[in-house]
Write a structure and sequence with these properties.
The chain is an alpha/beta fold. The chain is about 35% helix and about 15% strand. InterPro entries: TOD1_MUCI70, TOD1_MUCI70_glycTrfase_dom.
Length: about 425
């Protein structure tokens, strides 16, 4: 027994020593684990044997008990100096040069981009939907969308998913919210082929509770980028919206929308809520993960990050508090549609339009450029995972540009590189 005790004591001392080497401490929590040298063999060994704590995947959400008794705020106060926000729809560059075709995001100059981050009482900015650039919606659907004040929005493009019906909906939410899913022709045909499509007597298309809104003349070559239109420009598609909840198409919402708004906006007086990423706080860590998982062309992700680094974007550290992370879980976005929130979403979209379609890489940069002028609530990741049930895609993404490893490969005509976005990656400022 004595020998066993000595052996155990030596083992504990060895582990303590390894923790000191890898993490600078013998007491490691989920938060402090982020300070460890994750690429070291010591850290990887400790992690493999369970000595590094893992974040909780799912936890209970402290929602109100009954949506019927939730008080919807009647007075909407916005403390931002921004009072009036309008959008540029006529592109001077395309009008002056007939050889340039209209682009959905426009030909925003670098100077216009810099000016858009300076908040003033009245602003006019690029925010997609440039004239004659695509992204068209049928007047019948526009009529429906214009009446929506409370919105649950989603989108499916290129047939990657099927609509999933929300569960645990209260009668109050069913009557208060519009549930709208923006789709392209391929997805609409797939939904119809599965027998999940119905039409009302006015020609409106439905899949269960979801009103299907067809986006015609797609603005981009890349399905993932087309999906950013309803996700980030929800305020443009729903012009009368006061509140919206975005969920990705692969998700089944399992928490009542009224309870979501009460928990993440009204209770704390927030205007914008989004979850922290489970693993990353720095956009540079997230960029490396995107390259490993082939989410987009590696050299273009590198170029994107080089530009941000050159413009002063530092990796996340405690010096950035109260911003808890530069990387969100972008599959759920909860917002009140104030001028400032709408501006933020325009700026976020403009970065996605100018660079890569990986919106998690641009989110923290926009927060950084607004320099504390955009307060937001970044809630725990474990609550985020309790909001939905995740379903598998119906098929894998098929964009060839996601597999590109070198710039030379982009010259291959068979890869079909994007031609209507990512212009900020094509040259220096």
């Amino acid at each position: 027994m004595f020998a066993v005790g000595v052996a155990w004591a030596l083992f504990v001392l060895v582990i303590w020593g390894m923790l000191l080497v890898a993490c600078g401490s013998v007491s490691i929590t989920v938060e402090s684990a982020g300070q460890c040298k994750k690429k070291s063999q010591t850290f990887q060994f400790l992690d493999a044997w369970g000595f590094i704590p893992k974040p909780i995947h799912r936890c209970s959400i402290p929602v109100a008990r009954n949506p019927q008794f939730v008080q919807i705020p009647s007075f909407r106060h916005d403390s931002s100096i921004l009072r009036k926000l309008t959008y540029i729809t006529n592109d001077r560059v395309a009008e002056a040069d007939q050889s340039k075709r209209p682009l959905f995001g426009g030909y925003q100059t670098w100077k216009e981009r810099d000016e858009s981050f300076k908040i003033k009482p009245a602003m006019q900015v690029h925010c997609g939907f440039m004239n004659n650039s695509g992204g068209d919606i049928h007047p019948r659907d526009k009529t429906y969308l214009k009446r929506c004040e409370f919105v649950v929005a989603s989108g499916i493009f290129d047939g990657y998913d099927m609509p999933h019906q929300p569960s645990n909906l209260s009668d109050a939410s069913r009557s208060l919210f519009c549930f709208a899913m923006v789709v392209d022709e391929i997805s609409l045909d797939s939904i119809k082929a599965e027998g999940l499509l119905t039409e009302d007597d006015k020609g409106g298309r439905w899949s269960g509770i979801w009103r299907l809104v067809l986006l015609k003349n797609l603005p981009y070559d890349e399905p993932r980028r087309n999906g950013k239109v309803p996700k980030l420009l929800t305020h443009r598609i729903f012009p009368a919206a006061k509140y919206s909840i975005w969920i990705d198409g692969k998700m089944e919402l399992v928490v009542d929308p009224i309870l979501i708004l009460e928990r993440y906006l009204w209770r704390g007086g927030h205007k914008f809520a989004i979850a922290r990423h489970k693993h990353h706080k720095s956009i540079y860590e997230e960029a490396d993960a995107n390259k490993r998982r082939k989410r987009y062309a590696r050299p273009l992700i590198d170029k994107h990050m080089e530009i941000y680094k050159r413009e002063g974007m530092q990796p996340w550290s405690k010096a950035k508090l109260p911003v808890l992370s530069d990387v969100p879980e972008g599959a759920v976005i909860i917002r009140e549609h104030t001028p400032l929130t709408n501006l933020f979403c325009c700026l976020w979209f403009n970065e996605v339009n100018r660079f890569t379609p990986r919106d998690q890489l641009s989110f923290g940069y926009v927060v950084h450029r607004l320099n504390g002028s955009f307060p937001l609530f970044m809630f725990p990741n474990c609550e985020y995972n309790a909001l939905f049930v995740l379903h598998k895609h119906t098929r894998e993404h098929s964009s060839k540009v996601e597999w590109v490893k070198t710039l030379d490969e982009l010259k291959d005509e068979s890869i079909a590189f994007e031609t209507r976005a990512g212009l900020g990656l094509l040259g220096d400022r």
